[in-house]
Amino acid sequence: KQEVTQIPAALSVPEGENLVLNCSFTDSAIYNLQWFRQDPGKGLTSLLLIQSSQREQTSGRLNASLDKSSGRSTLYIAASQPGDSATYLCAVRGSSGSARQLTFGSGTQLTVLP
Amino acid sequence: DVKVTQSSRYLVKRTGEKVFLECVQDMDHENMFWYRQDPGLGLRLIYFSYDVKMKEKGDIPEGYSVSREKKERFSLILESASTNQTSMYLCASSRFGDPQHFGDGTRLSIL
């Protein structure tokens, strides 16, 4: 059964820093990996989706990488801002049968201090 | 923009009640999902549907049922609510292989 782990559970950085959030998964037979952002009391907003054949995706100040063979993904946030404060979740989609649904990590709660 | 609308942001019910949570999407997506989110446990899939009248169990279906009579609407039903079903419930929709789009969630309290 796929397991997704995100470390650290919480991170606090000063404004302007570049930072990296980590995600690891146990089964490399994935279809894609998705990064989400969740603000307190709200639903999830999709940030980036990386297909299993891709190595990275970029959107603005965000860059997500995928190393399927080692079961790792990173989300890089450049020049962090207080508005980036939120919980970031990664989710992996399996490649076959009942594994096609998303398996989520528990998230990293990011605080960017002004 | 994709819009996934959940009928209630906050809901308070009593144990033993039958509870309906509604979700509507406006992008003609084939796939719809119901999750619950609990501190320390993350998001867990309850049920999902790949087509009208079709449903499949997720990781934690016990105590829940679903209904998908129309493509745009996916309902989650708590047959007899219990206090351990107090949680944040999130609905999502997607096309096959595409990102899932989430609603704002329903915070359900069972007293």
What layout of secondary structure does this protein have?
The complex is a heterodimer of chains A (114) and B (111).
Chain A: E1 4-7, E2 10-14, E3 19-25, E4 30-38, E5 44-51, E6 56-59, E7 62-67, E8 72-77, E9 86-94, E10 102-104, E11 108-113
Parallel strand pairs in A: 2-11
Antiparallel strand pairs in A: 1-3, 3-8, 4-5, 4-9, 6-7, 7-8, 9-10, 9-11
Chain B: E1 4-6, E2 10-13, E3 19-25, E4 31-38, E5 42-49, E6 56-57, E7 64-70, E8 73-78, E9 87-94, E10 101-102, E11 106-110
Parallel strand pairs in B: 2-11
Antiparallel strand pairs in B: 1-3, 3-8, 4-5, 4-9, 5-6, 7-8, 9-10, 9-11
Tell me what the structure shows:
- The complex is a heterodimer of chains A (about 110) and B (about 110).
- With about 110 residues, chain A is mainly β.
- Chain A starts with a strand and ends with a strand.
- Chain A is built from no helices and eleven strands.
- In chain A, the strands form two sheets. In chain A, strands 2, 4, 5, 9, 10 and 11 form a six-stranded mixed β-sheet that branches. In chain A, strands 1-3-8-7-6 form a five-stranded antiparallel β-sheet, with no helix packed on it.
- Helices cover about 0% and strands about 60% of the residues of chain A.
- In chain B, strands 2, 4, 5, 6, 9, 10 and 11 form a seven-stranded mixed β-sheet that branches. A four-stranded antiparallel β-sheet of chain B has the order 1-3-8-7, with no helix packed on it.
- In chain B, a hairpin with a 3-residue loop joins strand 4 (about 30-40) and strand 5 (about 40-50).
- Chain B is globular.
- Classes of the chains: A mainly beta (about 110), B mainly beta (about 110).
- At the A-B interface, strand 4 and strand 5 of A face strand 5 and strand 10 of B.
